[in-house]
Predict the 3D structure of the following.
Amino acid sequence: MRRSGRTAILLGVAFLATCCLAAGRQAGARFESRFDQLDRNGDGALTRAEVPWVQFITRADADGDGAVTLEEARDALMTMFGRGSDALPEGGTKHADIAYASIDGVAPRHLSLDLYVPDGAEGAPIMLFVHGGGWARGDRANVARKPEYFCGNGWLLASANYRFVPQVTPAEQVRDVARAIAWLHEHAEEYGGDPERIFISGHSAGGHLVALVSTWPEPLREVGLDLSAISGTICLDAGALDLEQHMLNARGRGIFADAFGSDPEFWREVSPMAHIAPDTGIPPFLVLVQGGQRRLDGAQRFVDALTAAGVPAEVVYLPDHSHATVNRNVGLPGDPTTEAIERFLRRNGAPVH
């Protein structure tokens, strides 16, 4: 691409951001018009060939499919330009780059977490967040308003990185999540946290990983714990809860094929649905889902299997949300995501106030 063309596209993205920030104040049509101009092939999504701003594409691609839809662009730009951050309430502290494990040859950032702590914390419940990104990208810094929300309610919030596909498979990724839980279990009291009240949440691919570590005893057993170490699990629009079915019904393409390959035995090993069984200590589940009927049906099958195994579980459908806002709106007052999470936490002995 010639320099002038590249400059024009970057200027277009900047204008798109301006429209995004004004969205809801008569700017919606301008935003969509600018998006359409950038979408040169008219397929309803932006790629790096059309918008060579790598940071924008990486952060906006909420479902990790390599393309950014209009909804993803709007959500991401609101976050990138001021609507949501990792701000703490007054009196909180962020402890960054804490190594929760060490593995030879692995960059420390992949095995580290950030811990957000309210001043004066003592015996506080803990929420561990696991980011999304198609199992191949993402970062623990993308926590939106969660630090302010949880710390403002007296909780500790941890946000963890993990290794990526293709360097490792999801079977190793879930073990990284187990290592992060083990670190919190061992060290939470040093920061005023309660190791007996560790809740976990994850978005998209991260939602799959928290569901898997909560149903498959092996990863936690390897770090000296069992499923009772988790007080509750929140899945934020996770699309691979019944991975075997997902791969068999021809939707297992793209990022799913990259992450899970073609071996049905491996699909079963890393499918949360496949590990559901009664009397195994699986914690209570809250599953938040948006999208069409097929996505809702998949989430409902997972929750029905949990319920049949005697595990308290609920699915909450959010038809007015996007894949990104199910995650980004956590902590937004009055939003259905926040309300559902608050009900779930109250039921499980660790309310927010």
About this structure: The beta strands are 45-46, 68-69, 92-99, 112-118, 124-130, 156-160, 193-203, 232-236, 285-289, 313-317. The first helix runs from residue 3 to 21. Residues 21-27 have pLDDT under 50 and may be disordered. The radius of gyration is 20 Å.
